Amino acid sequence: MRLRTAATATAATVLLATATLPGATGTALAADPAPAVTPLADTQLDAQAVYFVSYNGLVNNNAFQKNGLLTYRGYQYAAWYTADRTAVVGRRALGASSWATVRLPHQLTANDSHNVISMGLSRVDGRLHLNMDSHSNGFFYVKSAAGLLDDPAARAWTGGQFGSVQTSLDGLALTSQFTYPQFVATPEGRLQLSYRAGISGNGRNGLAEYDGTKWTALGEWSGSTGTYTSEHGSSTARNMYLHGIDYGSDGRLHAFYTWREQSAAVMCNSGGITNHDTGYVYSTDRGRTWRNAAGTQVGTTGGSDPVTVNDAGTVVDALNPDHSLMNQESQATDSAGLPQAVISYVPGRFGQCTTNYVADRTANGRAFHLVRNAAGAWKKTEIPVPLNSSQRTHLVLDRYDNAYAVLPYGRIAAASKASGYTDWKTLFDANGLNAFGEVVVDDTRLAQDGVLSYMYQQRSSGTTPSALRVIDFRLPS
């Protein structure tokens, strides 16, 4: 076990000045195209989607949604809340300009941007699953008829294809304090649901699994206990915020994360946020046990030894709570199964103490690309595009493992694998989109047709509904 101390917090501050800065461009291999984006289409989902700003975000456009957009067998699916707060699920054939929609019998219960809709696919029975409308309380769940996604052209897109809205997973309740649903498909075609039990600053991550017949609770796998000590003070409770949870090509389940402490005593100023450190663990047994990057087991799901803040070897990028580190950013795995992540914070060159989380991130926040190579070394490179926002960036990789950062407002920057991810540059400036902030990327589509697709909502004011759209870009193929 490892106790975080003021010494490690000081070391984290020093590391702020050691991240690789962009500009050293490598020599691209002729066989591997450089990153590029070619706009294809920009289609409208809803002219009047619900709009309100809470926690600096929109309920229809949180970059951590998994999945707000989903592609399978030639069709793309989207979920959102329309102007009267009704949950809507739509589909289109890939390349089509129009969407067919179904209004579900549920309305958004609160003006809370946490209460997103997430979708998942269980390939074992061809069902679409939706979990929605929760923030440290109960959730709402609905699933489609079996086989609906297996032969979409032959199945009508109607409300009759969906079951009733439930407040459990077919009778499995999980927790009364549920937040952040993220569906992930296993290599065998089962479906897992990741979620947080508890509240911000005092919560645990859990997993449930659907096998085509029933849901089973696998249990909680991160712990909230232990002591974290910075140079300012200590905290004895926290929660793990996932940057994602994804299976790689080798069947490993990868999870990057940051910790949020319950006690503000760990910060230099109460206007900041208690997020600290980027951690990483993986599982080789479908999320039953967890290992650090060196391969040492550090946690068990549903057991007495969860992953905790004190587990040795889990921090892969150290950072104290004084730099407004974002939670729930983004991760990906390359074609060899190697993990990558995007994180963002206010670098030390702008000062060693943020005093206003939103204002300081908007003025000086930067995103960083973090990658682990085949030898096991971690490398961090700053993406040279000011965030101009307090919000999140999303990471995707093309078929050549070039990296694309989809920044707030829908801007796209990219770097080539050939350069060692050092040649970051802006490929799409998003001028004219009028996007509010974060966008929702379709992580499932790239591998199927080489298209980067994301959902964005146009800026409005107050609670005036606005247009929700999906834009598509061709990447190198």
Mean pLDDT: 94
What are the segments in which pLDDT stays under 50 over at least 5 consecutive residues? 1-29
Our measurement of the CA-to-CA distance between the termini, rounded to an integer number of angstroms, reads 46 Å
CATH topology: Methylamine Dehydrogenase, Chain H
How many separate domains? 1
CATH architecture: 7 Propeller
Class by alpha and beta content: mainly beta
- CA-based gyration radius: 21 Å
Helix content: under 10%
| Number of H/I helices | 3
Looking at this structure, what is the CATH superfamily? YVTN repeat-like/Quinoprotein amine dehydrogenase
Shape annotation: globular
DSSP strand tally: 32
The main pleated sheet reads as:
5 strands, antiparallel
**DSSP strand content:** 35-45%
CATH class: Mainly Beta
Organism: Streptomyces paludis
Signal peptide: 1-30
Pfam family, one: BNR_4
Keywords: Signal
Topology summary:
Blueprint: H1 6-15, E1 38-49, E2 69-72, E3 75-81, E4 86-93, E5 100-107, E6 117-122, E7 127-132, E8 140-143, E9 178-185, E10 191-199, E11 202-210, E12 215-220, E13 228-229, E14 234-235, E15 238-242, E16 246-247, E17 253-261, E18 275-283, E19 289-291, E20 297-300, E21 315-317, E22 330-333, E23 339-345, H2 357-364, E24 366-372, E25 378-382, E26 394-397, E27 403-406, E28 412-415, E29 425-428, E30 440-441, H3 446-449, E31 451-457, E32 466-474
